[in-house]
Design goal:
single chain, 476 residues, alpha/beta, ten-stranded mixed sheet, 39% helix, 13% strand
């Protein structure tokens, strides 16, 4: 943490369950109304504590996020309305003031609130200036000596792949902050200089976009979603080519031995973009640095893994299309396809189909909406864009598209767009007739009638009988 200027402040925000709004939201803050909306959009997915696979969460958890030149430290407590509807107190400020060291040291800050306060005021940054490297070391070094093995094994995984976010499994709660501090202190001279040190000491799942670089989960449960993270269990010895280097770095950090003679890892490619993180399309936003690795770990399935790996591990529509085209052009003969089918059993094809039905569909619809309303649908704060969105929600024939427009809850109270989406949901669909139109729809209808003539005739007969009955009834 650098020395703050006298006029610099950290803002506070408190999240919890609102009985009035019937949702988890920002309850009180020192922010302006405009900034409240922005930070609600950024943080609302990350302010809950909830049970993971029947394992209760810890009493409190600390998270650290960086968004461009701003940062947030979140203290979540298992206190509030119910499981998953818990309270969270957040400090928000410039990233150069609220850095990783400050975030780690803030674990023992006495100002954290567990119940909703009546008001929150900005905090002079100078009041937290004592949150320094020395303070973090004093707090966390006593617990690091007994973690020498865990520190070395975890650091080896970071050295293996510094560009992929890391999920750490089965690490005791009391060891998580000391381990984070030790990783940063021991590896900082060998990891990339812009290595992100965002973290969360507890998550119930890790298949959520936008999580910090390093997260801790109590158990690794299978997920149907795409998870592009390295998963590491501290109790399992790593099979790492960098294990000797990691051991030397940890020994140097803990015992003062000489620095290993090895170069720093290659720095990530700089795209030269001056856009902030949340100005970028979602597909460019993870990880927060450098370019994506070319491959990721294949999802589990019972079939043989081989020629179809690229298809099964695709994490975006473009990659999936490229791999599908490669398979189409490479495996054209019947005998070749027999070999390919060994890699495409029921589970493997189900994995690919789920990508098409869920991931690809959502990605394309998200991109479509961002074309219309900007990244994160930020234009919906504009009344004219909101009016356009309301018409789309009420009249479009895609239920998923309508619900996705109304889904962003980056507002303290439900707005007109969300209200329109809710009304559509409660009434069961669009407010205009949804009968397909156009040449294709007419051909499809004609084809159905030709294919099912008995059904069509029976329906016509029933309609005629009803008309005769009603006429007779009305005429007495």
């Amino acid at each position: 943490m650098i020395t703050p200027h006298p006029d610099e402040f950290l803002h506070q925000a408190f999240f919890g369950w609102s009985d009035r709004d019937r949702c988890q939201t920002l309850l009180v803050s020192s922010l302006s109304k405009e900034d409240e909306q922005r930070w609600l959009r950024l943080l609302e997915r990350f302010v809950r504590l909830q049970t993971a696979s029947d394992i209760p969460p810890p009493p409190r958890a600390l998270s650290y996020f960086v968004f461009g030149d701003s940062a947030a430290v979140i203290c979540r407590t298992y206190h509030g309305h119910s499981d998953g509807r818990t309270n969270a107190h957040v400090l928000i400020g410039p990233a150069d003031l609220l850095d990783t060291t400050a975030a780690l040291a803030l674990d023992t800050w006495q100002g954290w609130q567990t119940s909703q306060p009546m008001v929150l005021e900005p905090i002079p940054a100078s009041a937290l200036a004592t949150t320094s490297d020395k303070q973090a070391a004093e707090q966390l070094s006593p617990g690091i000596q007994r973690l020498e093995h865990e520190l070395a094994s975890t650091l080896s995984r970071l050295l293996d792949d510094a560009y992929t976010p890391l999920t750490i499994v089965d690490c005791p709660a009391e060891d998580r902050l000391p381990l984070l501090w030790g990783l940063r202190e021991a590896g900082t001279e060998y990891l990339p200089p812009d290595q992100p040190w965002t973290f969360s000491t507890y998550e119930d799942r890790h298949d959520v976009e936008g999580l910090p670089q390093i997260v801790f989960v109590p158990v690794h449960r299978p997920s149907a979603a795409v998870v592009r993270r390295t998963v590491f269990n501290t109790s399992v010895p790593p099979n790492s080519q960098n294990a000797p280097l990691a051991a030397q770095l940890v020994t140097r950090f803990l015992h003062g031995t000489p620095m290993p003679a090895q170069k720093r890892l290659e720095e990530p490619h700089d795209s030269g973009s001056d856009r902030s993180y949340f100005d970028m399309p979602s597909k460019e936003r993870q990880p927060l640095y450098g370019k994506r690795p070319e491959t990721r770990q294949a999802p589990r399935h019972t079939g043989h893994i081989g020629h179809a790996d690229g298809l099964l591990t695709a994490d975006c529509v473009q990659t999936f299309e490229q791999e599908l085209h490669r398979l189409e052009t490479t495996w054209q003969l019947s005998q070749q396809r027999e070999t390919l089918r060994k890699d495409l059993g029921a589970e493997a094809l189900s994995t690919a189909a789920r990508f098409v039905e869920v991931t690809a569909r959502e990605e394309l619809l998200t991109r479509l909406l961002e074309v219309a309303y900007g990244p994160g649908l930020v234009d919906l704060d504009d009344p004219r864009a909101a009016e356009h969105a309301i018409k789309v929600v009420r009249n479009c024939r895609s239920e998923q598209l309508a619900m996705m427009i109304g889904a962003p809850t980056g507002r303290r109270f439900p707005n007109k767009v969300q209200t329109a989406a809710f009304e559509r949901w409660t009434t069961g669909g669009a407010t205009v007739p949804t009968r397909p139109s156009g040449r294709v729809a007419q051909v499809n209808a004609a084809a159905w009638q030709a294919k099912h003539p008995p059904i069509v005739m029976a329906m016509a007969g029933v309609a005629m009988l009803l008309i005769v009955y009603l006429l007779g009834y009305l005429m007495g």
